[in-house]
Amino acid sequence: MTRSLSRRRFLKTTSLGAASTFAAPAFLSAKSPNETVRVAGVGVGGKGWTDINGAAKHAQVAAFCDVDTGKNRRGGFGNAAEAWPQAKAYVDFRRMLDKEHKQLDAVTISTPDHMHAPATMLALQHGLAVYTQKPLTRTLFEARALTQAAAKAGVSTQMGNQGHSGSGYRTLAAIIQSGAIGKIKMAHTWSNRPIWPQGQTRPAGSDPIPSSLNWDLWLGGAPQRPFKQGLYHPFKWRGWFDFGAGALGDMGCHIIDPVVWSLELGAPTSVSYVGPKPMPETFPQWEILRYRFPGTKHTSGKEIGMTWSDGGKLPPLEGTDIPLNTELPKSGVILVGEQGTLLCKHGGAPALYPLEKFQDANLPSVGGLDHYQVWIDGVKTGKAPNSSFAYSGPLTETVLLGVVASRVGALETLKWDAEKLAFTNSDLANRFVHEDYRAGWKTTGL
To answer: Structure pTM?
Structure first.
């Protein structure tokens, strides 16, 4: 697999047409519906604890690994060893997959962002179903490569944007596609993140590495750097370029998802950034991003714009049907239609404005699903999950375009050619499309 993975080649080789960019392969490899699915967890602390337990409701935990063997955080290696004493325990996911893949069916991957792609790619190459946390990857090239690798592997895949299975966003998509507020003119998305430090410089010196932590394995493919207590592991890594994708990477795959989904958007054509001057190693304390997409049958024009705001910045209510004195939720989405406006709190239910116009409206209402069960059911039945990599890979690309814009700064609007996986007007931006791994961590296909 080379760097020149074109969108057209991907769509052609996976039998996806331009009108169904996010469709999944019709048939996946499957077990018998009555067979037990054997799952392993890569990362079982923090969000990894949520993910392996979510999968364990529908599968048997057969193995797990974590670079930190302690019990001093939510979940973790020690807790997993107690919860599943028969499961094989490892520190290095490469060794676990090499030794155990023949006894496994599926893997959850819940590492810091920079190790999502290497672990996921290796699992796919072993023919294993994969549930990978959002954002699917840290770089654009990785997202495209995993989308292609998943199509080739023909296994059940799912990204951990659980809201895609929630009643709120499922209902939102149904309302928008029903035409209840008419064609959509504009979209706004926002988050209260970051809730960790950003816009900072790296401190000098180093601290003793905890005895439970394998710091070299935690760094993985990222460049070598000294350990600093509380600065990266286990939580504050998201703000650093080498490890995370900032506030947008954390929440964009959740909150931008219903916009892309309900409007059936393809790849953006451009993105621009407003915010502080970029720092050498960390994402900004706040940002406003402006995307442009080609219009669809659900939009009012040939193009549609979408904004993203974080760090305390909120979208404007001017030009919407929402009263100007309305207190917006900390995170959410607004879709401005020709006949009304939809507001949806992240994790909540959509509301339509003007309220008096829609108070008696007969609107669609869709129940929620278990995001983990959808994935495990895919392993058993061969039915592609709702946020399979065929959908969530391109969604991640959309999110990561904004991540690149925040690294480049407010120089100019970045123009994007999705087919070529390249920016057409910025050599600096193209430097962030594909980044190399540290020696010893190169993974085939990445």
So the answer is: 0.94
